[in-house]
Amino acid sequence: MGTIKRILVTGGAGFLGSHLCERLVGEGHDVICVDNFFTSQKANVSHLLSKPNFELIRHDIVHPLFLEVDEIYNLACPAAPGHYQYNPIKTMKTSVIGSINLLGMARRCNAKIFQASTSEVYGDPEVHPQPESYRGCVNPIGIRACYDEGKRAAETLFMDYHRMNKLRIRICRIFNTYGPRMHPFDGRVVSNFIRQALSNTDITIYGDGSQTRSFCYRDDLVEGFIRLMNAPDEVVFPVNMGNPGEYTIKELAEMIIELTGSKSKLVYKPLPADDPTRRRPDITLAKKHLSWEPKIPLREGLSKTIAWFKSIDPEQFRPPTPNY
Ligand code: NAD
Ligand code: UDP
Fold first, then answer.
1. Measuring from atom 37 of ligand 1, which residue has the nearest CA?
2. Which of 160, 171, 178, 218 has a C-alpha 20 to 30 A away from that of 295?
3. Ligand 2 nearest-atom number relative to CA 192
4. Residue 195 three-state SS
5. Active-site residue identified among 73, 84, 122, 147
6. Which pTM was predicted?
7. b/e per residue, 247-267, with b = 16+ CB within 10 A?
8. Is residue 147 annotated as a catalytic residue, yes or no?
9. With left for phi above 0 and alpha for psi between -120 and 50, is residue 66 left, alpha or beta?
10. Which of 77, 151, 174 most suits a substitution to test ligand 1, by most atoms within 8 Å of the C-beta?
11. Do 7 and 154 form a contact (C-beta atoms < 8 A)?
12. Rounded Cα–Cα distance for residues 239 and 297 (Å)
């Protein structure tokens, strides 16, 4: 085993954060999980609480926090549209003030710091697939702006702390990721469709279902996070992470119906404002610098996710917003 590090994971009780904590605890690191449980529950990390190298702190990153750490993964931020639009001002504060607080901590401790950014920095892209050099097409006053512009401002802060203070930073632009432990009522397409298919209720397609997304299985992504954090310090530029397989939302619905053997019918609902029409990552940089690419195809990842949804009682998940 390599050196044991003190690692802070903010948003560590969330869907991706809890898997990252699990992985880092398994590697023997001292892991501190900070979360305000806005979109998650303690149950996501309760299996780690008995581990001597895991600590859980309920805290909101908009407020300063003093810890001594070697590495910080900043994942704290609501990620699903229904969640981040619930209190858009708070979403912006989490990305901006939260990043300032953590960057300050990283500077004081000389810690390396990772930002969970997003493909939403590309907005509704005119360039396809999206390379990191593409500057995006974001509506700065729309209903997604609290998230998109918050994450863009966070990237700016990370780069400026790097340029001014030589801070060691990592920026990961995450494309749609799914898997077990995603919140069953987060309103995202994979969780909605699986819940609907398993209960044989109508599958709600927003718009005509021709918009595309690329879906990455969570284990592939968490592997990418760790590779990026451990990459040479020259890798300060943003790196896309996602699965380049591109599917229309209608194709996704049909695949989920097939995999669940569901009797659900497709129904069409209005497309939300500023909903990107297509999205697919160009992962050339991740391949080149991290030798990373996803290994789990959509069909396999969906089967594992469906099996997990069958194993849970969705009613046990605290609904964070009244969006279901
Ligand atoms: P999630 O909602 O399950 O996790 C986010 C976690 O952050 C939750 O546990 C939530 O309670 C916590 N949190 C929110 N605001 C906080 C605050 N102010 N202080 C402390 N904790 C706070 O979502 P996820 O899918 O696990 O996303 C994790 C990160 O990855 C987010 O930053 C998100 O923007 C980014 N991301 C995810 C995806 C995806 O497809 N899952 C895509 C792009 C980016
Ligand atoms: N979507 C849908 N039905 C749903 C939920 C989402 O058709 O029940 C669509 C949504 O309009 C978008 C895509 O699926 O075009 C992905 O939505 P999601 O909220 O999962 O993530 P986004 O990539 O938009 O942030």
1. 79
2. 171
3. 8
4. helix
5. 147
6. 0.97
7. bbbbebbbbbbebbebebeee
8. yes
9. beta
10. 77
11. no
12. 21
Ligand 1 centroid to Cα of residue 78, in Å, is: 4
Quick one: pLDDT at residue 324? 33
How many Å lie between the centroid of ligand 1 and the Cα of residue 141? 22
Q: How far is CA 57 from CA 14, 32, 60, in A?
A: 13, 7, 9
Confidence of residue 317 (pLDDT cuts 50, 70, 90): confident
pLDDT tens across 129-167, in order? 999 999 999 999 999 999 999 999 999 999 999 999 999
Cβ-contact 53, 29 below 8 angstroms: yes
* Dihedral pair phi/psi, residue 129, rounded to 5°: -65, 175
**Which regions of 11-106 does DSSP assign to beta strands (E)?**
30-35, 54-58, 71-74
What percentage of the chain exceeds 70 in pLDDT? 98
Q: What is the per-residue pLDDT across 279-299, written as a single tens digit (0 to 9) for each?
A: 999 999 999 999 999 999 999
Ligand nearest to the CA of 183: 1
Q: Which two tokens stand for residue 155?
A: 């990237």
With a Cβ cut-off of 6 Å, ligand 2 is lined by 80-81, 176, 188-189, 192, 204-206, 211, 213, 249, 271-272, 275
Per-residue pLDDT band at 321 (split at 50, 70, 90): low
Domain residue spans of the chain = 6-181+216-244+280-296
> Which ligand is in closest contact with the Cα of 256?
2
Per-residue pLDDT, 94 = 98
Give the ligand 1 atom nearest the CA of 320. 11
User: Do residues 53 and 30 make contact, with C-beta atoms less than 8 angstroms apart?
Assistant: yes
Q: How high does pLDDT run on average in the chain?
A: 96
- Quote the ligand 2 centre to 38 CA distance (angstroms): 21
Q: Which atom belonging to ligand 1 lies closest to the Cα atom of 35?
A: 21
The predicted-structure confidence for 183-209, as pLDDT tens digits, reads as follows 999 999 999 999 999 999 999 999 999
Is ligand 1 within 6 A of the CB of residue 235? no
Q: Looking at the domain 6-181+216-244+280-296, which fold is it?
A: Rossmann fold (3.40.50)
The reply to whether ligand 1 has any atom less than 6 angstroms from the CB of 32 is: no
